[in-house]
Design goal:
By secondary structure, the protein is α/β, with parallel strands linked by helices. Helices cover 43% and strands 24% of the residues.
Length: 143
């Protein structure tokens, strides 16, 4: 893994997957949009990893407030098993990150932006902001 490589965060959802990426110094996270959760999702993620020179992928793991697996956790783990095997083949590091409360935090952050109600309610905003929060928390924990 290159030290100057970027980190990609994924907020997995059954319909949409929020994405965020770090700068090369791994200090700041910025949202970069969403991908639709289709049968092409993993291929699209791997293409993004190559294009952006990603050295590490962070996947949000949904947990309950008590810290146990939620109903959605097994779906995320199944997705991760396949994606992580492909990332291993490309020598890309990967980790899970506890994403508890990131959707609530994302909604709060969006509300503070001063956007119109229509803009605030665009569903992709919450997905990409949740990914940004996951990534920024992980980056902060590394430094």
């Amino acid at each position: 893994m290159k030290i100057s490589s970027r980190v990609l965060a994924i907020d997995y959802g059954s319909k949409r997957v929020g994405l965020a990426i770090s700068d090369e110094l791994r200090m700041l996270a910025r949202p970069i949009g969403i991908l639709e959760n289709t049968n092409r999702l993993q291929k699209e993620i791997l293409a993004l990893v190559a294009k952006e020179q990603v050295g590490c992928v962070i996947l949000g793991l949904p947990r309950t407030l008590a810290g146990t697996d939620s109903a959605f956790t097994s779906e995320v783990r199944t997705f991760a098993e396949k994606l992580f095997a492909k990332l291993d083949a490309q020598n890309v590091q990967h980790v899970f990150y506890d994403e508890r409360l990131t959707s609530v935090m994302a909604q709060s952050n969006i509300a503070e932006q001063g956007w119109t109600k229509t803009k605030r309610e665009e569903k992709f905003r919450k997905d990409e902001e949740a990914a940004r929060i996951i990534l920024q928390e992980w980056l902060n924990a590394q430094n």
